[in-house]
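A protein record pairs a chain with a discrete description of its three-dimensional fold. The shape at a given residue is found from the number at the same position. Here is what such a record looks like in full:
>
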Amino acid sequence: MPEPVNPIRPTDDEARALARGLLAGARHAALAVLHPDTGGPYVSRVALGQAPDGAPVTLISTLALHTRALQADPRAAILVGEPGPKGDPLTHPRLTVQARARFIDRADPAHAAIRARYLADHPKSKLYADFADFGFVLFDVEGAALNGGFGKAYQLTFEDLRPR
């Protein structure tokens, strides 16, 4: 039986630029967490932005199940990238980011900059961003997988994703 071919290409500047563009352009994402009651996978849609250093960030309510899940186990994955209006959805680029969630306390010195950047990209969030049950969650990137379309798979690091 022949050895399986490794589908992962060497990460190059074109892949980095595509991944950065997908992350920067995403206003929402699919967030995968571990369900706090069952331990099974759970996926939710969240609004998504970027912290000043380029790390993914979201604003979520303590009332949401995914918040409780991240409090119990900070491991998460984020999927960004939308299929285009035509063609097979699997031929369009998408980025999966593996991360650990970190809740940003309002007293944290980074909070003001994260809030300002997020609200600039999500102005309607100003209506509820300061409600007591809402808070920012920063995703510390541990790795990422870019599928740039058929036959274009790459593994990336946070350094690859940082804005230039």
Notes: Strands lie at 28-34, 41-47, 49-50, 56-61, 75-80, 94-104, 134-147, 153-156.
